[in-house]
Amino acid sequence: MSEVKEHWICEKCGASSSGKFCSKCGAACPKSEEWDCSCGKTGNTGKFCPKCGKTRDNKSVVDDGNGVTGGNSIQVTHDTVNQTVVHTATEGNKRSVNPQQKKIMAIIAALVIVYFAFGMITEKLYESQCEKYTALSMEIQDTYKKIGELNGDVAAEETKFAVKKLKDEADRLDSIHSFLDKIPTPEKAKLVHRNTLAVMSAQKEYLLKTSDLLLANDRCVRSFFSYRSLPGTGDSEKTFKEFNEAYDESLKLFTEAIEDNKDLRINNQSIGKLIHIEKMNTAIYTYISKKVDFDTAWYREKKKGYYEKLTASNEALKQKKEVVFLVRSVETASNSADGKKYITVTGFFYNGTDDYVTGIGDMLVDVKLNSLDKEISSLSDVAYHDKILEKLSLPSKGTSSLILIQLKELAPEETFDNFEVNVHKIHWNARKLVRR
Q1: Where are the transmembrane segments (predicted)?
Q2: 219 lies in which domain range?
Q3: Number of C-beta neighbours around residue 309 at 10 A
């Protein structure tokens, strides 16, 4: 049991008191702390054990009033502390050399090394693909320069080689794009990664539309300040003009991609200096201009051939000893009554007989209309009669004025520029010439 001290100093206010409470602040008197000596003497209150003389440092404190007393107290000595430290250290050493722990630590270390090594490898791979892209872009610039030097003949070997080159470059560009899109993006490239891929996608589409334009083999002729495609002269359902419009759309998207990412740098080169889109487009329109000139000259020669063929046909007809029709042209004319277009054949009647023709009666007309060498419409044995011709006078070896044979058959919707006409089984009236 703890007893109240005779005189004690209050820890709170510093006043000297002798009761259970401080006479100044009312704080409770601190209880005296008893201790048990290792020799077995209990309830000691001084600094030394009255039985063996040991100091209080080796005590085991009894918490008066908290249930720790006598033989149930734990005595802590220097020896027990030393033994505990030695035991703990030994156990720690045993744990540090545990094989399982060593294996785990080795795996962790290996994973760390692999992680950093993979990051370095990925970065190198990314950089190598960017280097490939810059080299490819320079190659593409050279390809477009050579396209501008082509003569405009779509069938020329140089044109075919340019198409093959563009498709190969588009495939290589797609390969680089796919590779960069699949591998983890290095930290330093994350901000521009998507922008880089966007430019590549637009560039690839531009290359493909350019190759489609060069492949379009229908003929084009100049029409005022532009040109028109000649239908039926190409292998595709689309015309050269339609391929040109698709090219213009891809050019627009490619230009926008460049403008939106004008500050983009790939392999330490700015995108604007890497891709000279104005020069590329100039090369294409130089090619288009040359193609139109080439095709216009070709078309002029074709028309010349048709005219020569028609002239030869008319000369052959004039050798016959009969009345013939010499064709000049075939046109379409709108009927004011119904607004529809009908076929009109123009030409001249020629009297190859020795008689004097006093009138032209019934006849049959064959008409074949072509778009260049492709037939688009054909009429056979169309009966024709015109009362005006019944009074036509035509001397022997004489030629009439210009005649219009207006057929009742509708003209085709397609444009034609070549024709074959045969007016046959012509009935005429004549009187014999009396020679004097």
Answers
A1: 104-122
A2: 108-301
A3: 12
Strands (E) in 264-362, as ranges, are 265-266, 269-270, 323-334, 341-351, 356-360
Question: Which H or E run contains 284?
Answer: helix 277-317
264 and 344 share one domain: no
Q: How many domains does the chain have?
A: 2
In a domain, 372, yes or no: yes
Number of helical (H) and strand (E) elements in the chain, helices listed first: 7, 16
Predicted confidence (pLDDT) per residue in 189-243, tens digit = 788 889 999 999 999 999 999 999 999 999 999 887 788 888 777 888 889 999 9
Lowest mean pLDDT among 92-96, 182-186, 431-435: 92-96
> Distance (Å, rounded) from C-alpha 202 to C-alpha 186?
23
The structure tokens listed for 155 are 């069938």
H or E element, residue 170: helix 157-182
Separation between Cα atoms, residue 312 and residue 310, nearest integer Å: 5
275 and 404 share one domain: no
- The answer to whether 331 and 344 have CB atoms below 8 angstroms apart is yes
Buried b (16+ CB within 10 A) or exposed e, 381-391: ebebeeeebee
Question: Model confidence over 364-394: pLDDT tens digits?
Answer: 999 999 988 889 999 999 999 999 999 999 9
The stretches of 64-98 forming alpha helices (DSSP H) are 78-96
Judgement on whether residues 191 and 276 belong to the same structural domain of the protein: yes
- Does residue 76 belong to any structural domain of this protein? no
Q: Is residue 308 part of a domain?
A: no
Q: Is 63 domain-assigned?
A: no
Residues 276 and 392 occupy one common structural domain:
no
Of residues 369 and 123, which shows the higher confidence score? Answer: 369
Q: Where are the alpha helices (DSSP H) in 41-192?
A: 78-96, 99-147, 157-182
Q: What is the pLDDT of residues 342-362, one digit of tens each?
A: 999 999 999 999 999 999 999
d(CA 394, CA 417): 31
